[in-house]
Write a structure and sequence with these properties.
Helices cover 26% and strands 29% of the residues. The chain is built from 4 helices and 9 strands.
Length: 182
């Protein structure tokens, strides 16, 4: 897998340092509250686990699975809810935890869904933000790193469901995904 990486953007130490900083910020902002951490499957799981361990608050955790990629390198433009929350979020403060915000379509879909279910507040914590890929205007409240408009893998980010387990984030060599996209 490592041979498929063009270059490493963030190593494991940089990642863990930033996770701790985000957790401290969330802990400070949510004093006296009990937020629901909604992790977006599957990419955000590693980030969510690291983050919630460092948040010093009572917090619930739930999961949703929404997708617009379906295994390719570009968004299909159509977002589907693949797995819904198990618990009600009505009257609760929600923090959506995403791996990456790219086009914004998935996040917009999810925010509208949760707003319709009566959340008191909704904030977004994404580990990676790719503003150059944005097609839909969405706000992010907590951002780990802004990233270039390149195909990234590692720390939950994948290509065809591989590379998620890399402890760093790197740029995937174009020849890896171009040969499969032909």
């Amino acid at each position: 897998m490592n041979n498929d990486i063009e270059r490493i953007l963030f190593d494991e130490e940089q990642i863990q340092t930033r996770v701790a900083e985000l957790a401290a910020q969330i802990t400070n902002d949510y004093q006296g509250k009990r937020p629901v951490i909604v992790s977006v499957l599957t990419g955000a799981v590693l980030f969510t686990v690291d983050l919630i361990k460092k948040i010093d608050l009572y917090a619930e955790m739930d999961f949703v699975d929404v997708s617009s990629y379906y295994g390719g390198t570009a968004s299909s433009g159509t977002v589907k809810l693949l797995h819904d929350l198990k618990h009600s979020i009505a009257g609760k403060d929600v923090i959506i935890v995403e791996d990456i915000v790219d086009t914004g379509r998935t996040l917009k879909f999810l925010m509208e869904l949760l707003e319709g279910r009566g959340a008191t507040s909704i904030k977004v914590c994404t580990f990676f933000d790719k503003p150059a890929g944005r097609e839909v205007e969405v706000a992010t409240d907590y951002v780990g790193f802004d990233v270039p408009h390149e195909f990234l893998v590692g720390y939950g980010l994948d290509y065809e469901n591989y590379y998620r387990n890399l402890p760093y984030v790197g740029v995937l060599k174009p020849e890896v995904y171009q040969k499969n996209d032909d």
